[in-house]
Amino acid sequence: MKKVITYGTYDLLHHGHVALLKRAKALGDYLIVGVTADGFDKERGKLNVSQSLAERIENVRQLGIADQIIVEEYEGQKISDIQKYAVDIFTVGSDWVGKFDYLSEYCQVVYLPRTRGISSTVLRASNKPAVKVGILGIGNAAERFFSECKAVSGMEVTAVCDPDAQNMNKFCRGKGLERTETAEDLYAACDAVFLNTPVNEHYEQIMAALDAGCHVICNPPMFLTVAEANRCYERADELGLVLFEGLKTLYFPAFEHMLLLVKSGVIGAVKDIDVSCSQIPEHMEQVETNKYLGSLYDWCSDVLLPIIKLYESECLDCQLIDFQKGDFSYFTRGLLRYQNATASIKVGKGIKVEGELIITGTKGYLYVPAPWWRTEYFEIRSEDLRNVKKYFYNYEGEGLRYMIYSFLHAINGTERSLVHTRQDVLRSTAILEKFHRGEYTGIEM
Ligand code: C2G
């Protein structure tokens, strides 16, 4: 008996899938179909899947073509399945040509021609027109946002605006984007806008974008003062629009899991959080000319994120020490007191600290090595040094797509487990506002 195996997500099962499954079956006598688990798709950057694993399996089962259905849960499982089920032929569509040649060591590999003109992506898009996003402010983050948006169907960058025309032309080359003269024109041309601008410009831009009917995703931190934050959120509520802090760390699969683990009590009660972020930018001399690009102005939302998400309460006292030259802040240290717990932060711009995160609990501690804000790995350690639990994760691309995907969910009103809530933003804004008002001890750099 000749055994054939094939794999897929089979989201919104369509005639392309069916044609492939029929031809796969015809290659042998017995067909095994591996349906991808939700977590595996997420890990390989396939974030658009609209049906659950159970629904997708049921659709494949009802076709009656598969003799056996299994679940594909991890990278590398194909080799183990081929051996376990004594498979003779592995087959998949021609969109994967070359990608699975390594399996020919274990069985015959056949790429079948893909059916043209149909895909789950097309079906998803036909359900709903894509949200058109404009980018205000060109730079590295804009470039990343543009390319990662492509991985999220249902959202498309269509226009940009930047005061520097030369910069904008360079950015637009080959991208087929509309260029607008003014921010107002950008808002008018889009359903949503990504604000890639310094924090002191955000308030006016957010208000104008909301008034023009745009949902807003904004580089963190969003606000300098709590009053500004409240006014913007109120306006967004009145107009039924989404105001979303683009804090990508929160949406990394590893970070999300780490928060859930700690909240479930694996290290006991959390008593202290020690967290640092720093960066030496490529063109430090240009950065130094704008105080709003300095240490805490830039890193505040990131560095406070684990503290705010884990303590979920008001900061009772916050002492800051800041190293500065002129009005540019290079390095800020902070000591924060919460109900029965503490936290310390270090942030640097034009200075380098070890960017690690340590969460101290009554039963052990959780350690995330630098750079913790792009988490792929962490450890849980306890008194017994031999008992270290290690957690590894993958993410695709720059990791930004997970955040964009959550923004899209917020616009569509569909639920996501974890978001940066208004209260979270207000709590981190309160600390930045204190700094902004000059409530810190200054030290000459
Ligand atoms: N397919 C096809 N024609 C289409 C669309 C899809 O022949 N128009 C094929 C794909 O090539 C694949 C199968 O149908 O062999 C399932 O497609 P998807 O659900 O998109 O799954 P995919 O991401 O290709 O997963 O481990 C997962 C596999 O590697 C493939």
Question: Could you name the ranges where pLDDT drops below 50 across 5 or more consecutive residues?
Answer: none
Reported CATH architecture of the largest domain = 2-Layer Sandwich
Classified in CATH, the superfamily of the largest domain is: Dihydrodipicolinate Reductase, domain 2
Q: Ends: how far apart?
A: 76 Å
Average pLDDT figure: 92
Helical segment count? 15
Beta fraction? 25-35%
The tally of domains stands at: 3
Unique ligands? [cytidine-5'-phosphate] glycerylphosphoric acid ester
User: Helix- and strand-based class?
Assistant: alpha/beta
Query: Briefly, what CATH class of the largest domain?
Result: Alpha Beta
Quote the CATH topology of the largest domain.
Dihydrodipicolinate Reductase, domain 2
Apparent shape: globular
In short:
By secondary structure, the protein is of the alpha/beta class. It contains 15 helices and 20 strands.
Describe the structure.
The protein has 445 residues and is α/β, with parallel strands linked by helices. It has 3 domains: 119 residues, HUPs (Rossmann fold, 3-Layer(aba) Sandwich); 118 residues, NAD(P)-binding Rossmann-like Domain (Rossmann fold), CATH 3.40.50; 196 residues, Dihydrodipicolinate Reductase, domain 2, CATH 3.30.360. The strands form 3 sheets. It has a 9-stranded mixed β-sheet with strand order 19-18-17-16-12-15-14-13-20, covered by helices on one side. Strand 13 and strand 14 form a beta hairpin. The longest helix is centred in the last third of the chain and has 17 residues. The protein is globular and about 80 Å long. The site of [cytidine-5'-phosphate] glycerylphosphoric acid ester has 18 residues, from strand 1, helix 1 and strand 4.
